[in-house]
Amino acid sequence: MRSPDSKAIIAYSDFISNRLTFKWTLKSGGYLKYINREAYNKVIRVSLKGKTHSQSYIFQWDLIKPYHQCVADKSKCSTPPVKTTDVTEKANVPISWDEWKDDMAGLHHYEYQVFELASDGSKLVQGTSMVAQDLNITTGDSVYRNESWTSWAVITLKTPGLYSTTLIVYDKALNYKATRCVILYDNQSKVDIMAGKRTIVEQSSKDTNYTWISVSDKNLKVSWTDRFINFRHKQNHWLGSVGSLSDVVGEYDDHYGKRSVDEIPNAHGVVRFEVKYEVYSPALSAQQAYTPTVDVLLQFGHINVPWNDGNRLDITVRAYDILEKFAEETIVVYKDVSPPRIENLWLSRGDNVNISVHSIEDFSKMTIEWEAFDFDSGLNQVEWRLFDNYTSNFILHGKAELHAQGMAQNLTICESKYEGEPRGSSCYCTMFHGCYHKHFHVKPKLAEIGKDAGLITGKDKGVHDSDYFIEIQVINNALIKTTAVKKITIDVSPPHEGTVHDGIRGDTEVDYQTDLHLDAHWEGFFDRESGVEFYRFIFADYCFTNEEFKNSNK
């Protein structure tokens, strides 16, 4: 008996889809020779029926990296390669990934690493020990690393900060593709209001501490430059741009969500401003709900306000950080574009008003009256001045600032407060600034030594047949000014005497009349300095005394 032959045959080899296939076919067999002693030692050969066995081996190579389906489609991808809550107040942050594929060897496993980001002065970079030494920034090595077959994980962050999470996807040939997401974790976020800065309406008057608007513009600019800040977000540059990684190509970097690798436009850590307003007149008459401004970097907004003189405008500005924490400030402004009014400026003697002539040289003996008022804003300042400019030189004889006669809480209080005034109470009320007594009654007095309020000593008397001027200046609470001037004349001499005639003008004078209807007329009376204001006459059957003449009201 002989041993069978063995034969190894390479059936074929080819290259299909980056594969090299080897196939072996093994066929067993042989033959058997034997001598038949009974047949004269005949040699007989018998072939053996063997078996055929085939074996193949595939050798595959893969130079193609894994990919994310959405990114590979080259369309506007809305599914990020790695998903997470990129802005959070919670320390446990979930991340997940799906739609990853590898058409050749197939996916094998995933790795992810978490690094804290810090500023190198121009951008946020991922820190390592070497980088920290080179860039002089305080970050350590990766704070978290894991390998997993799963498609999700939960990262636990210990301190608030900005973190870079890199996910590495491996195929079976150990080709890999890296992607990244940025996570802002902050459980202490707060927006503060900066002292020394303020929110104002640009059209408001600085002299009124930005409380009054004296222009007719309905489109108002509200500004709050440097008023709001998130200190930690600004100081740590947590909203700045993130530097690229060599292993993460652009389309696989984080361009999704609220916190991506791109810089977030912000003003001192604030990412959004909203403005609302309410107009009162005095009831609520117009309003605007919270409305975002056009550009957060500008730190101002425009509002279109339908309002009128005397109205109150409440404006509220809210400043939001990226975690939707906010601070707000409300300011109040008022509108008045019209000047105050001055009426009925004159001298008076008792019940006689509208007098322009002072019959005594002593200014302290005269009485000045006028009405001043502003129904929209009320009065802030009232001042009188007495002067002459006879020689073309301004000569001041006296002046004084007066109380504005206002700020009574209501009309009843105002009338009660001023009911003892020479002409009684004359009150009016504004919408928001209390009630005022509008009649002013002044008898000038000599100024006290060291004080600038009253008649000036040595100039407290006028000169006969001379003109002087009383000036009243009134300023309302919007600081709009009105001035009125009244010319007066000093006349201490009586009118020139004339002649009184019996009878009707044009008739021959006789010393008797024949009926009880008595007629008289006169002529020749005049006053060169001030003119004749009125005539007083009496019919009687006896001669009146001078005192009786003065007391007569005829």
Automatic annotation (TrEMBL):
Name it.
Answer: Uncharacterized protein
